[in-house]
User: Fold this.
Amino acid sequence: MQLYKDHQIKIYNSLTGTKETFKSITEGYIGMYVCGPTVYSNVHLGNVRTFMSFDMIFRYLKHLGYKVRYVRNITDAGHLENDADAGEDKITKKARLEQIEPMEVVQRYTVDFHNILNTFNFLPPSIEPTATGHIIEQIELIKDIINNGFAYVVNGSVYFDVHKFNETNDYGKLSKRKLEDLIHNTRELDGQSDKKNPQDFALWKKAEPQHIMRWPSPWGDGFPGWHLECTAMSTKYLGDQFDIHGGGMDLKFPHHECEIAQNEAAKGQSPVNYWMHANMLELNGQRMSKSTGNTVNPDELLSGNNKFFSKAFAPSVIRFFIAQAHYRSVLDLTDDGLLASEKGFFRLMDAINFLDNLKASETSTIDIQTWKQACYNAMNDDFNSPILIANLFEAVKYINQIKEGTASVTAEDLALLKNTINIFTFDVLGLENVTKKESGTDKLSSAVDILIKLRQEARANKDFALSDKIRDELAEAGIMLKDGKEGTTFSLS
Assistant:
């Protein structure tokens, strides 16, 4: 069904800073590119939040009847440690530390990435290209940029000439940065760099003798710059101009800014009509950081084996929690937030699972058609999942009213209610119909709660030996109790 003809979507375009009415380049077709992971470590929750946002967007566009080519790349070469042009390649460094081949690193963490996304019920992209699989395309793109006068070769490396480009183009238009300000805030080169200016960035880096990942090129053995791969792969599979480019907010500068510059330098036109950026995920009000220890990975959150959360959470509960914030909002991951989302999630599932037991009436006292339109209006307004979820809970209220006999619906409206709530809950939000009884983590919570109560009774009776025994034996089983002002909670170690 071509529902898109009846639904006008507005998308917040990071390039213009405004919501714009979406119009695809080719009617009925959408090309969407999202920057994927650099596979040198386990995928983290911030990545999952970004990819989950675009999975929801992909799902909704498909539901509207668009034929979507969704391209999400794998960075398996060229991403240096400081995201610029210095330091060691992240994958090469990991391979050196573990004394394995770089492609073993790539394979291990690509598998981990896919496993995690499958656990969270992601749809696979249409194409998942790799940087190493497109070296030829990247070399050809560099040739075009050099021939157009926007790059220079020094000692086997090729650099993009930002100052030359900015004479005829606007470098910084996506991130709203002016080159003059970048120059003012950049230290002078120390004389050991091959760059003409600090703002220039590498299109091709010369491989030193110890560098494992290397390919032949017209400029000598080397490897492509990180920014280049996305320009090469997006335009190969979606054309020189395509509809949507997405990624995390942290990629806006310099990565996406450099993508625009490379495309304009090579092709003479801006590559993307709508730039979309998902915001950051925080943990307990602070930025997630491995260096400070304020971080938790998806496996730890799913298993409960972490120091931040009182229990394990099902994948759909986490997905539901993430959808309760707009993709452009900063989202703070907290134990209280997840516990509240879990209650809301099971409340929604209970209502949906009771739908088949509802009986139709001769008349409707609820306007289901207006409610259905409100669900579409939410998603049409820059994919506003929090408003959509509020509308789903409005349906939960309707279901309970019908169940209690204080409201009624006709058979036609009941069928419409069932169909619509299922579409938006499962097809668009990507949730899975998990009940409390099916949740192993919920069973564990119930069992531990019983032991906690027995321990509290033992302490009240001054039977401290039994109290300590319950605590210690749970600890040996990997279940750690934590006594606080509001009672006792547990976590898995």
DSSP finds 16 helices and 15 strands in the chain. The CA atoms of residues 454 and 467 lie 8 Å apart. The longest strand covers residues 242-248. The chain has a mean pLDDT of 92.
